């Protein structure tokens, strides 16, 4: 068994479509990034790469690469799953994601995110957890300027 940790933070920008955990929130400040800014996908991808000791997403998906400009970050997570399997012989067992954001309200979206992430990780939804909390008004996240995501994944040998 191997464990990996991932973290990401993105600043809010102008109003558009916010993408978080593969769920789209129209008419919300979007996250500023080279890709679609989906910090949930990025943190989880980094956790997978970490468990497999394959470096980080900055090395595999550089923001100098036009391939990832405005990219659907589900592709980044899917590619991390493939790398972990093909390069390290590892597949996810379970994942836990913690989103820290003042907005938007994530209530029902958490279950949608869980289903989306589970599909990409090839896991049952019961093996994927998506939690959310605010920063209690503290710091840049508390002031609603950014979103932070922490992720942990457990992986085991394929087959
Ligand atoms: Mg990111």
Q: What would the keywords be for this entry?
A:
globular, binds magnesium ion, 5 helices, 60s Ribosomal Protein L30, Chain: A, 31% helix, 159 residues, 36% strand, alpha+beta
Describe this structure in words.
- By secondary structure, the chain is of the alpha+beta class.
- The chain has a single domain (2-157), classed as 2-C-methyl-D-erythritol 2,4-cyclodiphosphate synthase (60s Ribosomal Protein L30, Chain: A), CATH 3.30.1330.50.
- Helix content is 31%, strand content 36%.
- It contains 5 helices and 5 strands.
- It has helices at 39-51, 57-60, 74-88, 109-121, 139-142, and strands spanning 2-20, 23-31, 90-100, 128-133, 146-157.
- It has a 5-stranded mixed beta sheet with strand order 2-1-5-3-4.
- Helix 1 runs parallel beside helix 3 (74-88).
- The mean pLDDT is 95.
- Bound molecules: magnesium ion.
According to DSSP, the number of beta strands is 5
CATH topology: 60s Ribosomal Protein L30, Chain: A
Tell me the fraction of residues in β-strands, as a range: 35-45%
- Which ligands accompany this protein? magnesium ion
Give helix % range: 25-40%
Topology:
Blueprint: E1 2-20, E2 23-31, H1 39-51, H2 57-60, H3 74-88, E3 90-100, H4 109-121, E4 128-133, H5 139-142, E5 146-157
Parallel strand pairs: 3-4
Antiparallel strand pairs: 1-2, 1-5, 3-5
Bound molecules: magnesium ion (MG).
């Amino acid at each position: 068994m191997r464990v990996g940790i991932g973290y990401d933070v993105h600043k809010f920008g102008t109003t558009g479509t916010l993408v978080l955990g593969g769920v789209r929130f129209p008419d919300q400040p979007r996250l500023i990034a080279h890709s679609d800014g989906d910090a949930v996908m990025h943190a989880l991808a980094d956790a997978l790469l970490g468990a497999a000791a394959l470096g980080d997403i900055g090395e595999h998906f550089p923001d100098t690469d036009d391939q990832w400009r405005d990219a659907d970050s589900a592709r980044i997570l899917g590619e991390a799953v493939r790398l972990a399997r093909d390069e390290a012989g590892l597949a996810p067992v379970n994942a836990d994601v913690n989103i820290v954001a003042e907005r938007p309200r994530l209530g029902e979206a958490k279950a949608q995110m869980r289903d989306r992430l589970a599909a990409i990780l090839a896991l049952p939804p019961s093996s994927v957890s998506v939690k959310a909390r605010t920063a209690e008004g503290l710091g840049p996240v508390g002031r609603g300027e950014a979103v932070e995501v922490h992720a942990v994944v457990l992986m085991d040998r394929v087959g």
